[in-house]
Amino acid sequence: MNELQKIQQETKKGILDLEQTIKNLDHDGVIIGDSKTCPLKHSFSDGIYVREISIPAGMIIVGKIHKHDHPNFLLKGSVVVITEKDGIEELTGPCSMISKPGTKRALYAKTDLVWTTVHLNPTNTQDLVELEKEIIADSFEDYELFIELKNKQIKQ
To answer: Can you list the domains of the chain with their CATH numbers?
Structure first.
């Protein structure tokens, strides 16, 4: 393992440790999923699912692992983001980026944010549980299994 891979592994571990620490906190400031504090807006069009979250200044968020690359739009605000592949970045909206498959982010909202992601929705389902099964991996291990399965299907 080279030096860059070691740093990426340490960063990934740090993001997972932060997520676990947040989950272990027992007070009103801890939010998991959709909430009045960080409301989600879901929109649908033919073959597309759009997810928008509003995040107040001062929040620390750990995102989910997405299985596919997809567009992201920081529509409003300033945020510090860390990922294992890109390290620490400061972003100010409006801006756009393509999220790589397997990316998990931790972020600190310096100001109020509006962040939007766009995902393929080939079955046009509006069932959020079903969509998350298609879009999200529950862990890095699940993501690796998804990739292995996808590669086997491509070879066949």
So the answer is: 3-155 (2.60.120.10)
